[in-house]
Amino acid sequence: MTAPPILSDKNDWFANWFDTPYYHLLYKNRSVEEAEDFIIKLTDFLQLPKGGKILDNACGKGRHAIHLNKLGYDVTGLDLSEQSIIEAKKSENESLHFDVHDMRNVYKENEFDAVFNLFTSFGYFADEADDLNILYAVKKQLKNEGVFVLDFFNTQPIIQKFDNGYIYNDSQTIDGIEFNIHKKSEGNIIIKNIDITDGHKKLHFTEQVRLYTLQNFLDMFAKAGFIVKQVFGNYMLEAYNVDESDRMIFVVEKGG
């Protein structure tokens, strides 16, 4: 018997924030070149079959998925944000498709050679069990011996900063819109409060990410039935260092 799908709550912070134009405006200067270079290095390392099928979970407007497709892969991009998928669909072709989907649910079973979850698109849910549900869903969607790549920021330096009284405040104006940002730590969650002034409009959004450590991830992967093959520490795919690396980039294989 198939489990009923997990339904997203429109009141969830990510359902609200990611579907607004302000989210894309705030992060519009993310480096496309860095993302494309990372994808080239990653696919060279993975040696996926020519024309192999890749699922890009939490794909946003599709920048990683589009580049993967240009490299010759058959790519499906999924995201909860309807507005992001509307934009991504402008780039669709016979081997590049996008769909609105909650990554806690299975999209297609035994379909993909690889599943990617990039740029800290994990750890958003209030219930930690939902993150484990993502891993279970990923495993079901992979072919035998398929690989899962999860890219997350390295939490150890962040934890140390906040333990030492670190305070983050930032203000910036982009296209005439003012963003005031404050980060704080509550338990094992980083909360980013974003206050926006757009003319006479004042809006407030939050981002929340759970501070999963290396050991937390290793435990979750083991529980979900994955075998960890490699952990990289940055987008250059250099070795991971717990105290100094920028990222934790896990390459794991579907186990038995």
Features:
alpha/beta, S-adenosyl-L-methionine-dependent methyltransferases, Rossmann fold, 2 domains, 256 residues, four-stranded antiparallel sheet, 29% helix
Reading the helices and strands in chain order gives HHHEHEHEEHEHEEEEHEE
The helix/strand class is alpha/beta
Question: What is CATH's topology name of the largest domain?
Answer: Rossmann fold
The number of E-state strands comes to: 11
How many separate helices?
Answer: 8
Low-confidence region ranges: none
Rg is 18 Å
The CATH architecture of the largest domain comes to: 3-Layer(aba) Sandwich
Summed up, the domain count is 2
Describe the overall structure.
By secondary structure, this protein is an alpha/beta fold. It has two domains: 13-153 and 213-254, Rossmann fold; 157-207, S-adenosyl-L-methionine-dependent methyltransferases, CATH 2.20.130. Helix content is 29%, strand content 34%. It has eight helices and eleven strands. The protein has helices at residues 13-17, 21-26, 32-46, 63-70, 82-88, 128-141, 155-163, 214-224, and strands spanning 53-57, 74-79, 96-100, 112-117, 142-153, 168-174, 177-186, 189-198, 201-210, 226-232, 247-254. It has a seven-stranded mixed β-sheet with strand order 3-2-1-4-5-11-10, with helices on both faces. Strands 6-7-8-9 form a four-stranded antiparallel β-sheet. A hairpin with a 2-residue loop joins strand 6 (168-174) and strand 7. The radius of gyration is 18 Å and the shape is globular. The relative contact order is 0.14.
